[in-house]
């Protein structure tokens, strides 16, 4: 299938069926294109952000250097998470018209909590609450681990829009449900 045919079918699917089309990227260029073709959401995670940086370092280089200059004691992890947050917010800004048009039911960017926290519900919840405060149309990806399920319940109870991620088996999916 050619790229043009595939893109045409995505647009047709998004406009003629109840299927929601989410873009698996937070690249402003890719997400803008996807929204123009019916996408109603986008996603981030550390791997996706690294891929965006490889393609768009020219766009991000100055901002990364500014983050480092403004926070001289930050570790590489802290700088990286700041970039992840800023990319997610930029994507959420692009999706804001969809969010407003659909009264908050669509038009979100999903941002993943730090995978290193997979066993620590308290840290997952704290990060989820922080991410939720960045923009009204943020959705927080929380892993379906034992601690993640606890965090999903707590974050949801506190009003965070949650996307359960890293589900590998039926018991995990049932626990999320």
Describe this structure in words.
With 177 residues, the protein is an alpha/beta fold. It has 2 domains: 112 residues, no CATH class; 64 residues, no CATH class. It is 59% helix and 13% strand. The chain contains 7 helices and 5 strands; from the N terminus they run αβαβααβαβαβα. A 5-stranded parallel β-sheet has the order 1-2-3-4-5. β3, α5 and β4 form a beta-alpha-beta unit. The protein is globular, with a radius of gyration of 17 Å.
Descriptors:
177 residues, alpha/beta, 2 domains, 5 strands
Question: Can you describe this structure in just a few lines?
Answer:
The chain has 177 residues and is of the alpha/beta class. The chain has helices at residues 3-16, 28-36, 46-70, 76-101, 121-132, 146-157, 170-176; strands spanning 21-23, 39-43, 108-112, 138-143, 162-165.
In helices, the fraction of residues equals 55-70%
Oligomer: single chain
Please tell me what the overall shape is.
Answer: globular
Helix count, DSSP H or I runs of 4 or more residues: 7
Q: State which percent range the strand residues make up.
A: 5-15%
Regions with little confidence, pLDDT below 50 for 5+ residues: none
Output the strand order for the largest sheet. 1-2-3-4-5
Taking all residues together, what is the mean pLDDT? 91
**What's the number of extended β-strand segments?**
5
Structural class: alpha/beta
Helix-strand pattern:
HEHEHHEHEHEH
**CA-atom Rg in angstroms:** 17 Å
Number of domains: 2
Largest sheet: 5 strands, parallel
Measured between the Cα atoms of the first and last residue, the distance is 36 Å
